């Protein structure tokens, strides 16, 4: 089983990625390598943040590692919250604060089209690889479901009758933006075995 260090402090993402990658890989957390650092996210794009985070952790550890950055892009909000999705309602905000802000901004707006985008930057043997995943859907007017995290309770993917927060993990991971990006990473890693 191959070890891969995931450059994140987000335990939700860590569990989700391990479930997506399965037993072929052992995903290490920063805690597993006794690294307690704030990872910078100062870029203006999702791709830029993923690369910045992976390079930062690779620079500290020298290990094969990967980082992701994810954004919810809403048509009627000109692509917001986008790169600011995790802190849309301000520094130190909660998932609920972010959802409240989005729902308030969409109040009375008919066009609720949105997409989740995820970019993963893998640094493997010193070489950078980028993988992108995207899922389209709509923002529903009120929360539904209690699983998942982030904007999952208000994101309804196209072709489904359940929000991400209502879906079992295996279904969400099979169609999600992070699942699609991670599948690219998984295929590359398997080809290198």
Task: Report what the structure shows.
- By secondary structure, the protein is α/β, with parallel strands linked by helices.
- The chain has one domain (2-191): Maf protein (Alpha-Beta Complex), CATH 3.90.950.10.
- Helices cover 31% and strands 25% of the residues.
- It contains five helices and seven strands.
- Strands 1, 2, 3, 4, 5, 6 and 7 form a seven-stranded mixed beta sheet that branches.
- A hairpin with a 2-residue loop joins strand 5 (113-124) and strand 6.
- Helix 4 (169-175) packs across helix 5.
- The N and C termini lie close together (10 Å).
Keywords for this entry:
alpha/beta; 7-stranded mixed sheet; 193 residues; Maf protein; 5 helices
Which regions contain 5 or more consecutive residues with pLDDT less than 50? none
**Helical segment tally?**
5
End-to-end CA span: 10 Å
Helix content: 25-40%
Q: Could you give the count of β-strands?
A: 7
Q: Count up the domains.
A: 1
Mean pLDDT over the residues: 93
The gyration radius over C-alpha positions equals 16 Å
What structural class is derived from the secondary structure elements?
A: alpha/beta
The best one-word shape is: globular
Largest sheet: 7 strands, mixed
* Series of secondary-structure elements, N-terminal to C-terminal: EHEHEEHEEEHH
What portion of the residues fall into strands of 2 or more residues?
Answer: 25-35%
**CATH topology group:** Maf protein
What is the CATH level 1 assignment? Answer: Alpha Beta
Oligomeric grouping of the chains: single chain
The CATH architecture assignment turns out to be Alpha-Beta Complex
């Amino acid at each position: 089983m191959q070890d891969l260090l995931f450059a994140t402090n987000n335990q939700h993402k860590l569990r989700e990625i391990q479930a997506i990658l399965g037993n072929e890989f052992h995903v290490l957390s920063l805690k597993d390598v006794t690294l307690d650092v704030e990872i910078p996210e100062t870029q203006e794009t999702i791709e830029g943040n993923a690369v910045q985070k992976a390079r930062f952790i690779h620079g500290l550890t020298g290990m094969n590692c990967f980082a992701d950055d994810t954004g919810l892009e809403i048509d009627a909000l000109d692509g917001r919250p986008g790169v600011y999705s995790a802190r849309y309602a301000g520094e130190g905000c909660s998932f609920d604060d972010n959802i409240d802000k989005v729902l308030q901004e969409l109040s009375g707006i008919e066009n609720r089209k949105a997409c989740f985008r995820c970019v993963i930057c893998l640094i493997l043997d010193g070489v950078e690889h980028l993988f992108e995943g995207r899922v389209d859907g709509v923002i529903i007017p009120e929360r539904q479901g209690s699983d998942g995290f982030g904007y999952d309770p208000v994101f309804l993917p196209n072709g489904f009758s359940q929000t991400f927060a209502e879906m079992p993990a295996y279904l969400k991971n099979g169609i999600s933006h992070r699942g699609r990006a991670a599948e690219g990473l998984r295929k590359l890693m398997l080809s290198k075995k």
